[in-house]
Amino acid sequence: MEIDQKKPLSSIIREVCDGWSLSGSEQFALRYADGPQLYITEQSRSEIKNGTILRLAISPARAARQLLDRIQSHGIDARLEALKELAKLSADPTFATEFISMEGIGTLARLVESGTHFGEMLAFTLTAFLELMDHGIVSWDLISLSFIKQIAGYVNQPMVDVSILQRSLAILESMVLNSHSLYHRVAQEITVGQLIGHLQHVIRGNRPIKAEMAHQLYVLQVLTFNLLEERMMTKMDPSDQAQRDIIFELRRIAFDGENDPSGTEKRKAMYTKDYKMLGFTNHVNPAMDFTQTPPGMLALDNMLYLAKLHQDTYIRIVLENSSREDKHECPFGRCAIELTRMLCEILQVGELPNEGCNDYHPMFFTHDRAWEEFFCVCIQLLNKTWKEMRATAEDFNKVMQVVREQITRALAMKPSSLDQLKGKLRGLSYSEILRLRQSERMSQDDFQSPPIIELRERIQPEILELIKQQRLNRLCEGSCFRKLGNRRRQEKFWFCRLSLNHKVLHYGDLDESPQGEVPFELLTDKIPVSDIKSVVTGKDCPHMKEKSALKQNKVLEQAFSILYDPDENLNFVAPNKYEQYCIWTDGLCALLGREMGSDLTRSDLDTLISMEMKLRLLDLENITIPEAPPPVPKEPSTYNFTYNYG
Questions:
Q1: How crowded is residue 578: how many other Cβ atoms within 10 Å of its Cβ?
Q2: Which residues, in sequence order, are CB contacts of 1 under 8 Å at separation 6+?
Q3: Partners of residue 563 on adjacent β-strands
Q4: Which GO molecular function annotations are given, in alphabetical order (predicted)?
Q5: CA 611 to CA 632: how far, in whole Å?
């Protein structure tokens, strides 16, 4: 049938009901037959496209009343079916408004608080609750403490159904993001340690970890290490007896078998001797060694952890070095302080998370005291490397440079546990580091010679043009994007592609994600490339300025906008960083004659130039390339050797 957009929707529904001899047209509504099957309203009717299949259904108010009655019925099967249908319908804003007006959210909350629902029934209840709350009609601040405790209880259970765990975590996340008061309540119920248990299944699972999960693990790692910042920036107070007692404890554990002399002068002399053996710079008052930040008191915390939890290792390191010749002893105190500073730099303690970074280390999620255990592994490495280098006090900085390289190389291999880290470090001995340095230096020297640099400069424009054409070809193929609404769900799609002559951008809405290219005929809107003024990304995008800071972070790094005449904009949120964000921002910049500056372009440029240069240099294998071209010979004294024809 043909819908007259000028007629009220109620009149159209009445005509359909009359055609089917149905009375009470106000009890019916139109819904999409495919996709999310949303209700048609006066506000959304303009989005109906030619050929769209609609179906007549009971009105949202009537559906809400029926489902509310059914989910409170005594029959378990009837209640399960009702909750299943409710979970699906709750995504519809029109239905959600009606259901919420009937106190539906309160009913669902009471079902959860009762603790009588399990399995599928509970999963559908939590799904419906989350979908309804995501519409933003009801404030999260109205959620009761008993409901929070019940949801937290599902998360804290060691063995819980995956679907229930996912929905419980999603609800808690929404509470934290949308309510400052609920943030503190949730924090009281859920600890990081309880969440780490669930993360183990993700980190140690066989399935590859997706980019979003990797980023969240990285953020958690950064925030966990940032808890150390306070101690790292706290200077030791030499007059604080409690802090001085920690140093006394380090001495006592190391030299426990020796009796302190009775005289004050003799005791002071022995303390000075012991503090020297412990490797402190200030033998008289070692507290002064901890007055520099970073690492501040964090270094002392690490040393005490080693002395108490790994006592045999601590005593062995101290006594082993105290028995060496003075010039070859490894000063434990000085090394521990400098090592703590180095580890803080490597792991960027105190730095804010990088929005585009996924660089997390699985091993830090395998131990409750991962930082301290990491220090204990590294201090043993330092002691071992000191011996291998036969270092003296003058070599201290050289040893620390080698140890930094050993640690960074081992971390780059992403060991999954501290035991694996130890294995990687064993393979990175001082001799191995020297071998790697030599190999890299030779390779670098080859590529830094003037002829090679000149060849690279000649090749680069060709490669950049190749990358540019690839980006424009991808824009001509087009990409599908999700429409970003005010809620977490993103049901609608739209497609954008560049015309084959590179002069027009075509775009339009879709009912669902396409499987291939979308014909230009289906894309009803267009922007001439000549009208595009600029391309902006991240926080400069108009659709990012409107979002709250907390919700913005998830999509900020994948957002970009086209600004075009007259004062219009087309906003994008790419589904992933490299496949679409970099491709599209590069392609649009190429269209406007601007430099392609994405990470993907730099990576592609390095890869392609390297491959091209290796191919061109194959014929010169084992031939030494001179630093300068051969000299041009002098002109001959006469040109009598020329021959004149004719």
A1: 13
A2: 16
A3: 534, 569
A4: SH3 domain binding
A5: 32
Length of the chain: 646
Question: Helix count (H) and strand count (E) of the chain?
Answer: 26, 9
With b for 16 or more beta-carbon neighbours within 10 A and e for fewer, the 254-281 pattern comes to bbeeeeeeeeeeeeeebbbebbbbbbbe
Asked if 31 and 54 touch (Cβ cutoff 8 Å), the reply is yes
Contact 557, 576 (CB under 8 A): no
Backbone dihedral region for residue 32 (phi beyond 0: left; psi -120 to 50: alpha; all else: beta):
beta
pLDDT digits (tens, 9 = 90+) for 304-346: 999 999 999 999 999 988 877 667 789 999 999 999 999 999 9
Name the phi and psi angles at 537, rounded to 5: -130, 165
> Residue 624 carries which DSSP code?
P
Q: Cα(365)–Cα(193) distance, rounded to whole angstroms?
A: 10
The CA distance from 345 to 343, in Å, is: 5
E strand spans, 115-264? none
**Own/partner pairs, 490-499, CB within 8 angstroms, 24+ separation:** 491/35, 491/36, 491/38, 491/91, 495/522, 495/523, 496/523, 496/570, 496/572, 497/523, 498/472, 498/529, 498/587, 498/591
296: left (phi over 0), alpha (psi -120 to 50) or beta: left
Does residue 109 contact residue 143 with C-beta atoms inside 8 Å? Answer: yes
Helix axes 119-133, 76-89, angle to 10 degrees: 30
Q: What is the pLDDT of residues 20-77, one digit of tens each?
A: 889 999 999 999 888 788 899 998 888 887 788 899 999 999 999 999 999 988 888 9
Q: Could you give all domains of the chain from N- to C-terminal order, each with its CATH number? A: 27-208 (1.25.10.10), 230-442 (no CATH), 461-533+564-602 (2.30.29.30)
> Do residues 68 and 104 touch, judged by C-beta distance below 8 A?
yes
* Omega prior to 295 cis, within 30 of 0: yes
Let me know: does 235 contact 296? Beta carbons within 8 Å: yes
pTM, rounded to two decimals: 0.67
Q: What CA–CA distance (Å, rounded) separates 371 from 222?
A: 12
Q: What is the DSSP letter of 43?
A: T
Rounded Cα–Cα distance for residues 372 and 339 (Å): 12
The SS3 of residue 495 is strand
Contact assessment for residue 40 and residue 48, using Cβ atoms and an 8 Å cutoff: yes
Is 314:372 a contact under the CB 8 Å cutoff? no
Q: Around Cβ 39, how many Cβ atoms within 10 Å?
A: 19
Residue found by looking up tokens 């970009």 in the block: 560
Q: 466-524: per-residue pLDDT in tens?
A: 999 999 999 999 999 887 654 455 457 899 999 999 999 999 988 777 777 888 988 98
* d(C-alpha 525, C-alpha 533), whole Å: 18
